[in-house]
Amino acid sequence: MLLTRTSTAVAGRPTRSSAFQTPRAASARCHQARLVRRSAVVVRASSDNGSTKRATYAELESIQCDLSAFPGVKFFRVEAVFRPWRLPFVIETLSKNGIRGLTNTPVKGVGVQGGSRERYAGTEFGPSNLVDKEKVDIVVSRAQVDTVVRLVAASAYTGEIGDGKIFVHPVAEVVRIRTAETGLEAEKMEGGMEDMLSRKD
């Protein structure tokens, strides 16, 4: 970041030496001070961002999760952390594909992005700041894990550092409180992905 000092104290406030200047000269100095102030907040984050590798949408849509460590587990929790402004896209994409049950939590965190700067909602975040993110938790059956991960990854993707991470956790059991159902019956959502797939068949 380039910082430039100027002898003008505050734009619009004349110093002792500028008290006898013409209005045009005073205006020019104020304009120059404003330009200097603006140049102090320029952020150059080109080569400082580390790796520039970006996935293609084809790669995102072919993600496969290795669940072999948990052969007997029927349910998994997909935990996705991503940029706040991608939340509407993620929820809309999941909803269109029959994923009805999810939990959303605003969170703060730092990862690879902690070594670089980002602007969001008018605020600049640096190495020592925790960045605002959104977290979505979705519990799905084993057969739906890859599909859900692909949908979240493609809809949260921008290709820049700070896009987020997806974690997949094993879930021992699912219980629906209202009906006391357990297992697949408790996890199933009416009008969800299973119903949408069965209608196509």
UniProtKB/TrEMBL annotation:
Gene3D superfamilies: 3.30.70.120. InterPro entries: N-reg_PII (IPR002187), N-reg_PII-like_a/b (IPR011322), N-reg_PII/ATP_PRibTrfase_C (IPR015867), N-reg_PII_CS (IPR017918). Residues 1-21 have a biased composition (Polar residues). One of its GO terms (biological process) is regulation of nitrogen utilization. The lineage of its organism: Eukaryota, Viridiplantae, Chlorophyta, core chlorophytes, Chlorophyceae. PROSITE patterns: PII_GLNB_CTER (PS00638), PII_GLNB_DOM (PS51343). One of its GO terms (molecular function) is enzyme regulator activity. Residues 1-24 are annotated as: Disordered. GO terms for cellular component: cytosol. SMART domains: P-II. Belongs to the P(II) protein family. This is Nitrogen regulatory protein P-II.
